[in-house]
Amino acid sequence: MKSSVIVFPGSNCDRDIAVVLEKLQFKNTMVWHKETELPKSDLIVVPGGFSYGDYLRSGAIAAKSNVLSEVTAQANKGTLILGVCNGFQILIESGLLKGALLRNIGLKFISKNVFIKIISNKNKFCNKYKKDQVIELNIAHNEGNYFTSKDHLKELEDNDLIAFKYSNKKGEILNESNPNGSIKNIAGILNNNKNILGMMPHPERMADKLLSGEDGLDLFLSIMS
């Protein structure tokens, strides 16, 4: 499979995700944000980091980059798009996903491992996971508090578009297991066509047993299946 990882000024997880993709034999290309064309890709990744130093609003400046027009065009053709952390913020700001990512409820940057529960596995990103499976991933963000309208929330729930929710180790979805205040503990969502996934936790940080764990690996294996 072929993949493209978009690189912005301030990206800091682009190489991490490239390492995972290349380990899984993806033919990967790093694409600078000023480019106006993308190589033929089965997967486009908008990685985590702090694009443009998170000035103005996280992801807002990056969403205006040249390459986002091509990412949008490819998304509309059905290409798989994965946005992680700052990448999720960029997808929101570009309109590829609905909603908003607000400041964490405690108004502090959070960096720690969390448990998330697989809510939807009938999609190209999560089919190697079992529904209701609990996995452990890492988060590192200041604006991860997902919010959306009542109508859109109902649309997400009715159409199985909530990919993950923050939970405890037992899979209980409680306020205490919500690190940032996200509505309904939402940690990741899909678009209506289920070819775009935005998520705050970092699967690429949990893709090697020797380094941290492998709970994120099945996301990439799902994409390959």
Keyphrases for this structure?
5 helices, 225 residues, 11 strands, alpha/beta, 26% strand, 21% helix, single chain, Rossmann fold, nine-stranded mixed β-sheet
Commentary on this structure:
The protein is built from five helices and eleven strands, in the order βαββαβαββββαβββα. The chain has 225 residues and is α/β, with parallel strands linked by helices. It has one domain: Class I glutamine amidotransferase (GATase) domain (Rossmann fold), CATH 3.40.50.880. It has a nine-stranded mixed β-sheet with strand order 2-1-3-4-11-10-9-6-7, sandwiched between helices. A two-stranded antiparallel ribbon has the order 5-8. The termini are close together. The relative contact order is 0.17.
Number of helices: 5
Poorly predicted runs are none
SS strand fraction: 25-35%
Number-wise, the strands total: 11
Q: Which bin fits the share of residues in helices? A: 10-25%
CATH topology-level fold name: Rossmann fold
Count of all domains: 1
Order of helices and strands: EHEEHEHEEEEHEEEH
Largest sheet: 9 strands, mixed
Largest sheet strand order: 2-1-3-4-11-10-9-6-7
Q: Would you spell out the secondary-structure blueprint of this structure?
A:
Blueprint: E1 2-7, H1 14-23, E2 27-32, E3 43-46, H2 66-76, E4 80-84, H3 86-94, E5 100-102, E6 110-118, E7 134-141, E8 145-147, H4 150-158, E9 162-167, E10 186-190, E11 196-199, H5 217-224
Parallel strand pairs: 1-2, 1-3, 3-4, 4-11
Antiparallel strand pairs: 5-8, 6-7, 6-9, 9-10, 10-11
